[in-house]
Amino acid sequence: MRKNLFAPLALVTSLLVAPVVSATSLTLYSGRGESMVEPILKEFEKETGIEVNVRYGATAQLAVLLQEEGKRSPADVFWGQDAGAMGAVSQAGLLAKLPSDIYDKLPNIYKSVTGNWVATSGRARLFVYSPERSPKAEHPSSVFEITDQRFKGRVGWAPTNGSFQSFVTAMRVEYGDERTLEWLNAMKANGAKTYRNNSTQLEGIADGEIDYGLVNNYYLPRFTKVDAKFPVKQDFFKEGDIGNLMNVAGAGVLKSSKNQKHAVELLRFLTSKHAQEYFALEVNEYPVIPEVSHSSDGTSYEKALKASPSLDLDKLDDLEGTLALLRKAGLI
């Protein structure tokens, strides 16, 4: 029996406030932050005349709330921050089958194999480095290689960060717990320096504390937008390496929704060129359609697609197992 991966419902309900619903409206449970998604939702309302009533909360908390509410849920659409939560809700049987035209032309890394949810944007794992202290000829070809002696004390990571934990989950899916634990222990033994999050790793490189970091692709552009000479670069490991994981934000329509037509319309909008340009240009995430170009610091859409490993995104739902492994390694 699948374990409940998320926080208790009592915590969820204490943090969430029910939205007010009007006649022509949708209720959206959004694990994506309000400042990030409100502008594009306003565009949808303006274009369609459909009001979107949003219940914001952490993705994991909303996922467990949906499982507790079941058929009684007022939600029409669930918009999650990561594939693991989308997979959990899908495997709980709560999401409706989507029309195939929404996802059939998307790359495999951007869609659920069940056809119950679809990616709305992507963010790639990669490594950042100091171009002054880390010449390209010395770069690791794989995330497994970064445990070599020549990188001792030069690498940063953030074991408590959610995106890092999703990456570890993907490593477990691809290589198993034993090899993943070996990698975690090897990183620790090699003097990997612990940081709070992605941004502080970039700051650590700029300050000379470390030469490499393991982060998401969109953090460096935030720094270079302010300072074009910020002394950090980024790149992918070899093609298909698990260190290049493309994780996604995704959305699905609830089976219990009484307004699935408008709910599907929202998903079509979120995967449209207009919305994808917003995610690419304003949020610095990767678009899910090739019609939208995205290139920042040498990590283009095309390069990210080629570099990413091919995984069943629905299998990235075992956060509990990942946390247990990180505890076993003494990292959290």
Describe the structure.
The chain has 332 residues and is an alpha/beta fold. It has helices at 9-15, 34-48, 59-69, 83-91, 162-189, 198-206, 219-226, 260-270, 273-281, 301-307, 319-328; strands at residues 25-30, 51-56, 77-80, 117-129, 155-157, 193-194, 212-216, 233-235, 246-253. Strands 1, 2, 3, 4, 5, 6, 7, 8 and 9 form a 9-stranded mixed beta sheet that branches. α2 links the parallel β1 (25-30) and β2. α1 crosses α3 (59-69), α3 (59-69) packs parallel to α4 and α5 (162-189) runs parallel beside α11. The longest helix has 28 residues, at 162-189. The chain is globular and about 60 Å long.
Structural class: alpha/beta
Tell me the Rg in angstroms.
Answer: 20 Å
**Which oligomeric state applies?**
single chain
Shape: globular
Task: Give the termini distance in whole angstroms.
Answer: 26 Å
What is the H/E order? HEHEHEHEEHEHEHEEHHHH
Family: Belongs to the bacterial solute-binding protein 1 family.
Organism: Marinospirillum insulare
Protein name: Iron ABC transporter substrate-binding protein
InterPro entries: Ferric-bd, SBP
What's this, in brief?
Helix content is 37%, strand content 15%. With 332 residues, it is of the alpha/beta class.
List keywords for this structure.
332 residues, alpha/beta, D-Maltodextrin-Binding Protein, domain 2, 2 domains, 9 strands, 37% helix, 15% strand, globular, disordered N terminus
Walk me through the topology.
Elements (H helix, E strand, L loop, with lengths): L8 H7 L9 E6 L3 H15 L2 E6 L2 H11 L7 E4 L2 H9 L25 E13 L25 E3 L4 H28 L3 E2 L3 H9 L5 E5 L2 H8 L6 E3 L10 E8 L6 H11 L2 H9 L19 H7 L11 H10 L4
Parallel strand pairs: 1-2, 1-3, 5-6, 5-7
Antiparallel strand pairs: 3-9, 4-7, 4-8, 4-9
Helix pairs in contact: 1-3, 3-4, 5-11
InterPro entries: Ferric-bd, SBP
Family: Belongs to the bacterial solute-binding protein 1 family.
Protein name: Iron ABC transporter substrate-binding protein
